[in-house]
């Protein structure tokens, strides 16, 4: 049931404030001071490193989580796509926690990677949407993301719920390891509690996204740029766009631009820059100016402060609500989703059932 929406994808994008609210109240204690994990939980003081493995959009959720676990919990994190990890057969040393992210919980490569780590890692954690799935059943600590059934092939609400669950786990780890005081933990949890409201607000960019998308349909290639935890969001934006609009899109870490991809830039290539006004903003802006100096059409996705400081001369701007930079990757999933969605609608492609793709990839 599309509940009055034209596509499941549109419904699932719109549902995000509600499902995120559900996930937050599932994991955050009633007094707002801590994170509850299902038994037997996890002793983060004994963790020396984490290995995160997934495919596609779930892999990008792991890439964001790497920034979170390394920065707030001081745990070194390795991330790999499941199809590479399983055949690379990396050595596993004591103190390793393996974490698998999968919406369906049935992705063949991710499941094979999990089975490889079984008996080698100290603990197997999974972040899944389907609680009775193989990946959930075969892990020591399955963490449900509570996104509800996702029908659109392009993952939307599952991605933001994966990120939210991973953010909560990272905060829990940081506190347990003594890197985050009780006061700071409570403050971050309060910020997370404000996330559904901010996502609702961010959904207000829909009209603007629709307008911009009408221009994006003419492009043959589109580049996405981001730095730090916004780099995986750039990857997600490019993947979403490719999947449902069939327009070629690539994402780069902003700093990589001058090492090759800038050669692609001319006046026909829209360059979408995802840059909240955070500590790395100025660096990203200088990369953006290099694009503009070569005639590239920049779409800047930033907040009010960012738009004021760097919005001059850009092709267009999408202004997002201000947010704690730690949580920005979750919020910036919204423009990635809406731009892909409206570009596909403008092109007239099959949004919910894109060609050549399956919702659950149970063969390798
Ligand atoms: C992208 C998308 C895919 C999946 C990937 C993993 O929109 O849906 O890239 O994220 O196939 O699937 P799960 O999460 O079910 O393991």
UniProtKB/TrEMBL annotation:
<feature type="active site" description="For Fru-6P isomerization activity">
    <location>
        <position position="359"/>
    </location>
</feature>
<feature type="domain" description="SIS">
    <location>
        <begin position="212"/>
        <end position="354"/>
    </location>
</feature>
<protein>
    <recommendedName>
        <fullName>Glutamine--fructose-6-phosphate aminotransferase [isomerizing]</fullName>
        <ecNumber>2.6.1.16</ecNumber>
    </recommendedName>
</protein>
<keyword id="KW-0808">Transferase</keyword>
<comment type="subunit">
    <text>Homodimer.</text>
</comment>
<keyword id="KW-0315">Glutamine amidotransferase</keyword>
<keyword id="KW-0677">Repeat</keyword>
<dbReference type="GO" id="GO:0006002">
    <property type="term" value="P:fructose 6-phosphate metabolic process"/>
</dbReference>
<dbReference type="GO" id="GO:0097367">
    <property type="term" value="F:carbohydrate derivative binding"/>
</dbReference>
<keyword id="KW-0032">Aminotransferase</keyword>
<dbReference type="GO" id="GO:0004360">
    <property type="term" value="F:glutamine-fructose-6-phosphate transaminase (isomerizing) activity"/>
</dbReference>
<dbReference type="GO" id="GO:0006047">
    <property type="term" value="P:UDP-N-acetylglucosamine metabolic process"/>
</dbReference>
<dbReference type="GO" id="GO:0046349">
    <property type="term" value="P:amino sugar biosynthetic process"/>
</dbReference>
<comment type="function">
    <text>Catalyzes the first step in hexosamine metabolism, converting fructose-6P into glucosamine-6P using glutamine as a nitrogen source.</text>
</comment>
<dbReference type="GO" id="GO:0005829">
    <property type="term" value="C:cytosol"/>
</dbReference>
<keyword id="KW-0963">Cytoplasm</keyword>
<feature type="domain" description="SIS">
    <location>
        <begin position="40"/>
        <end position="179"/>
    </location>
</feature>
<dbReference type="GO" id="GO:0006487">
    <property type="term" value="P:protein N-linked glycosylation"/>
</dbReference>
<dbReference type="GO" id="GO:0005975">
    <property type="term" value="P:carbohydrate metabolic process"/>
</dbReference>
């Amino acid at each position: 049931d599309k509940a009055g929406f034209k596509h499941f994808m549109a419904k699932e994008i719109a549902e995000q404030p509600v499902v995120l609210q559900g996930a937050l109240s599932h994991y955050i204690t009633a007094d707002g001071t801590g994170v509850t994990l299902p038994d037997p939980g996890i002793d983060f003081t004994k963790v020396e490193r984490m290995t995160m493995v997934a495919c596609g959009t779930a892999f990008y959720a792991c890439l964001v989580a790497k920034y979170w676990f390394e920065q707030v919990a001081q745990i070194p994190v390795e991330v790999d796509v499941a199809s590479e990890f399983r055949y690379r057969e990396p050595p596993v040393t004591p103190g390793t926690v393996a974490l698998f992210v999968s919406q369906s919980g049935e992705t063949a490569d991710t499941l094979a990677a999990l089975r490889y780590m079984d008996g080698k890692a100290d603990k197997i954690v999974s972040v899944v949407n389907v609680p009775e799935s193989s990946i959930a059943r075969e892990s020591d600590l399955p963490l449900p993301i509570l996104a509800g059934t996702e029908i659109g092939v392009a993952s939307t609400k599952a991605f933001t719920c994966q990120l939210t669950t991973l953010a909560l786990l990272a905060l829990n780890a940081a506190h347990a390891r003594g890197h985050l005081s009780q006061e700071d933990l409570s403050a971050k949890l309060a910020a997370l509690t404000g996330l559904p409201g901010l996502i609702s607000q961010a959904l207000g960019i829909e009209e603007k996204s629709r307008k911009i998308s009408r221009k994006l349909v003419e492009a043959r290639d589109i580049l996405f740029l981001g730095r730090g935890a916004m780099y995986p969001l750039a990857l997600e934006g490019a993947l979403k766009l490719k999947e449902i609009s069939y327009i070629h899109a690539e994402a780069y870490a902003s700093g990589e631009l001058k090492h090759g991809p800038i050669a692609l830039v001319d006046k026909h290539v829209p360059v979408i820059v995802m840059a909240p006004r955070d500590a790395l903003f100025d660096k990203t802006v200088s990369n953006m100016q290099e694009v503009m100096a070569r005639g590239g059409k920049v779409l800047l996705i930033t907040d009010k402060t960012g738009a004021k400081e760097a919005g001059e001369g850009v092709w267009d701007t999408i202004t997002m609500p201000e947010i704690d930079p730690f949580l920005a990757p979750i919020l910036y999933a919204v423009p990635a989703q809406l731009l892909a969605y409206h570009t596909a609608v403008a092109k007239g492609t099959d949004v919910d059932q894109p060609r050549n793709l399956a919702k659950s990839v149970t063969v390798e």
